[in-house]
Amino acid sequence: MNRRELARALSDTESISAPERAREPWCVLGVTGAPGVGKSCLVDHIVQKWLESGEKVAILAIDPSSPVSGGALLGDRMRMSSVDFGEDVFFRSIATRNLPGGLPSRLDKMVDLLVEQGWTKIIIETVGAGQSEIRIVAVADRILLVEGPARGDVIQAEKAGILELADIVAVNKCDLEGAERVADEIQLSLNFSEGDAAPVVLCSAETGEGVSELLSTIEDLTAARGPAIARARERLLAAHQELLLSHPNFSDALKGLCDGRYTIEEAIDLLK
Ligand SMILES: Nc1nc2c(ncn2[C@@H]2O[C@H](COP(=O)(O)OP(=O)(O)OP(=O)(O)O)[C@@H](O)[C@H]2O)c(=O)[nH]1
Ligand SMILES: [Mg+2]
Fold first, then answer.
1. Can you tell me the distance from the alpha carbon of 40 to that of 46, in angstroms, rounded to the nearest whole number?
2. Is the minimum distance from the CB of 173 to ligand 1 under 6 angstroms?
3. Cut 0.90: pTM above it
4. Dihedral angle computed from the Cα positions of residues 39, 169, 114 and 234, in that order, rounded to the nearest 10 degrees
5. Which atom of ligand 1 is nearest to the CA of 42?
6. Sheet harboring 200-202: ordered strands across?
7. What gap in Å lies between CA 206 and CA 3, rounded to an integer?
8. Which domains does the chain carry?
9. pLDDT tens across 188-244, in order?
């Protein structure tokens, strides 16, 4: 399958019939964090490193053009910095705006197809730290949460339960003030959680400080640290939501709720 065919196949997930991949050895890294914390800059470093060790890397960026941060499009940066590795990098952005909910299970299928087509590492970058992002990153085998010097984002991630799911936390922009304090606070709240605490790495995608430590820590992530049960929960909820949304009675149930024909219990009954 050439790139064009691959791109086309990825946009028609209904037709993907690739075999479901084994989850070990791991190959899908989910990267999430608030807008503008530096996810794409860090992904760029990760991609470079993986390319140098002979991997073929596909990047799926979920709605990367966040208007909030004005961060550069990862695709543009990839084209600049990884130009020598062109054949071994595949970049695809996925606009969530047009998708009616079922993104996580579609991502599962895309990943299966990419693996079947010989891509050895897949990165899913998604913006934010809310319920929908947690669903998206639950598709990944390993989860990198990127934070920055502003404490507000961390609280959001904690609330959504992403901190609990993360296998590794990068506190980026350590060249700016406040990053160390945030790293300490994250470390503290992780120490209160059950099991092995995820490593917290201070780094700067800009100056390069701490980046190689981050990369080797990612490399050493043998077992997923985030609780398997929490990840399975998100995957199950995502699949269930998709079933509901595609139920033939769904729009009737919605309309009926709006115009008072159905109570919520009756609407639910219609969707059984
Ligand atoms: N000072 C400093 N700036 C950084 C660092 N990493 C990234 N930036 C800057 O932060 C901005 C956003 O970086 P991106 O990598 O695009 O951030 P992002 O998290 O991918 O952004 P979205 O995808 O829009 O959410 C850019 O202007 C970067 O140059 C860092 O370590 N230190
Ligand atoms: Mg980005």
1. 10
2. yes
3. no
4. -110
5. 15
6. 89-94, 57-62, 121-127, 28-33, 142-147, 168-171, 200-202
7. 31
8. 3-226 (3.40.50.300)
9. 888 877 667 889 999 999 999 999 999 999 988 876 665 677 778 887 887 788 788
Does residue 226 have its Cβ closer than 6 Å to ligand 1?
no
Task: Name the residue type at position 220.
Answer: D
Task: Answer yes or no: is the C-beta of 38 below 6 A from any ligand 1 atom.
Answer: yes
Under 8 Å CB-to-CB from 236, ≥6 apart: which residues? Answer: none
Query: How much distance in Å is there from the Cα of 83 to the middle of ligand 1?
Result: 20
Please, where are the H alpha helices in 98-249? 103-116, 131-137, 151-160, 162-165, 179-191, 211-219, 228-245
CB of 39 within 6 A of ligand 1: the answer is yes
Highest mean pLDDT among 51-65, 96-110, 132-146, 246-260: 246-260
Residue 34 CA: nearest ligand 1 atom is 25
pLDDT digit string, tens, across residues 81-121: 544 557 889 888 877 654 545 677 788 889 999 999 999 99
- State whether the beta carbon of 72 lies less than 6 angstroms from ligand 1: yes
